[in-house]
Structure formats: structure tokens, C-alpha cells
Amino acid sequence: MTLAEKILAGDVRSAARLMRDIDDGIGSAWAELKRLYPHTGRAHVVGITGPPGAGKSSLTDQLIAALRSEDLTVGVVAVDPTSPFTGGAILGDRIRMNRHATDDGVFIRSLATRGHLGGLSNSAADIIHVLDAMGKNVVLVETVGVGQDEVEIVRTAHTSVVVMVPGLGDDIQAIKAGILEIGDLFVVNKADRDGADRTVRDLEVMIEMNAARVGDWQPPVLRTVATKGEGVAGLANKIHAHRTHLLQGERLARFEENRSALRFEELLRDALFRQVHLHLGPEKISRMVRAIARREQDPYTAVEEILRQMKQEKKS
Questions:
Q1: How far is 149 from 108, CA to CA, in rounded Å?
Q2: Is the separation of the CB atoms in 45 and 74 below 8 Å?
Q3: Would 178 be classed as within a structural domain?
Q4: pTM for this model (two decimals)
Q5: Do both 185 and 142 map to the same domain?
Q6: Does residue 256 form part of some domain?
Q7: Same structural domain, 144 and 18
């Protein structure tokens, strides 16, 4: 049996192995993903993003519990700024999710961004597909929390949850353009702290002012205290409400088409770059980069010459 067949049969170890191969860039993973892809498209993907220290990991942990209480299976992709295998603070961030480790209905996978902009590693989308094919009802994607750069989450998640905390003050104004564009739900976590009312009010005002751009879904602002589990059931209910909203009319179909187009473009771009890199070789690329850095050649001409050379070689 192939890895894909074993995964579809419910083999968790095979799923973990394929995820590792995907993250390590093993070429054989593509063949398995091809087999799995027809079995995807059923999971509801929820992105959880926000500034560092907002309590995203605690909230994700509590949200897992809330979803499991509804008998929903859950996959988690926790995207970190560094490798999940080299220690550091991220292990402390994830330890609070360990209580779900023995639950067969939960699968948690940490990924490193490896310098990929937007808060998502380049393999995150494929990991989501594996969790989807495994039959997970909901896939939670918790990102590193780097501010506006995380607008990429909206390309992957059906529902984007932006987590804020009281006391940010002017920081909300500084990042409001980004969060208003990506947020379907806003959560003021640590709502038992001073300033929670003001943070909620500021967010509600900004959402109201941005109503024309939001469209026919008005993002709610919720309060939670994740460490105590307060407000988490309400958040789960709003996530379900947003899914119901997407299922009306052609909204979900349009979303999937846009997401598929972006993923296709990303894969095509990466594949073409690998092809060019392999064709030229690292030494020649290094020479070209040095020439560009010294202003001996401009990057535009360099790209044109590469394309012209490859086209001529293909004809011959």
C-alpha cells in the first residue's frame, strides 16, 4: 500500500511520515499528495493569528477542547518561527496542547516558517491537505504572530480569527489596515485585564468604519479568557456561523476557486524556479548575483537572458 492509501485507511503514523517528507522537501511526497487530493475539500480551515503574546496557543488549546466536546475531529498546524525540533520557546508554547496528545480525534503538527514571508511555511498548505484527507472536520492553523505580514493566512483559511489583547493602545491603529482585511472574527483575549472594554470598542469602531469593505459578513468582536476557558464556546459557535455563511450561495465555491488559483500559482512559481536553478547550477547563479550586486548587470536583463537561453536550448 502507498502512504496515501494507508492514510486514507486511518494510519496516523503514515500521515506523520508524509508530513515530515513534505516539510523536508522529499520529492516522493508529491506523488502521495496527488493521490490524496481527490479526498480533500471537506475540512473547515480556521486560521488563528495576532500579535505575539496574545495567547493564541492557549486559545487554540481551549478551542480544540470545545470542538471535541461537539464530537468534531481536529487537526492543528502550529507554524513557528524556528524549527520545532531544536528546542527554544516554541516548545513551551506547545506544551499546553499536550493534553490532547492521547486523543485519537486530534492531530497536532508543528512547522517552521523557514524564512517564508506571511507567517506560513511553504509546506503548510500541503499539511492541511493531509489533515483534510485524514478526515479531520476542522483544521486549526495557528501562525507565528508577526503582524501585517500574516495576511497570507486569509488565502489558506476559510475563517480567519484575529486575536488581540488589552493594552495595545496605538498598536491597534498601526496594524488596523492589515487586521481588518484578514479578520472574519476578532477576539480580545485576556479580557479580564484592564483596558479590555476600550480594545473591544476600538475594534468595533474600526470594523464599522470599514463596513463597506467587509461585505455581507460583519465580523464580530468576542471576549475570551483562554486560560480559564471563558468565551471559547462562543468563539466556536461564531466559527460555525461563519461556515454556514460561506455555504450560502456561491461564497464557498468562489473562495475555493481563489484559494486554488493562488496555490497553483505558488506551486508553478516554485517549480519553475527549481527548474531554472537546476539548469543553471549554483555556481553560475552565484556569479550572476555577484554581478548584479556590483551593478555590472541589472537583474531584469539577467532574467531575460536566462529565459532566452532556455528557450533557445529547448528549440535545439
A1: 24
A2: no
A3: yes
A4: 0.87
A5: yes
A6: no
A7: no
Q: Order of strands, edge to edge, in the sheet holding 74-80?
A: 106-112, 74-80, 138-142, 44-49, 159-164, 185-188, 221-223
* 221 close to 204: Cβ distance less than 8 angstroms: yes
Q: Which amino acid is at 193?
A: R
Grid coordinates in use for 4? 496515501
Range of the domain at 67: 41-248
The mean pLDDT value for 206-220 works out to 76
Decide if 145 is inside a domain: yes
Is residue 255, in this structure, part of any structural domain at all?
A: no
pLDDT tens-place string over residues 74-131? 999 988 765 444 433 344 455 567 788 789 999 999 887 655 544 455 688 899 999 9
Angle between helices 282-293 and 251-280 (to 10 degrees): 100
**Alpha-carbon gap, residue 270 to 63, rounded angstroms:** 34
Angle, vertex CA 113, rays to CA 108 and CA 115, nearest 5 = 175
pLDDT in tens, 231-281: 999 999 999 999 999 999 889 999 999 989 988 988 888 888 888 888 888
Cβ neighbours, 10 Å, residue 3: 22
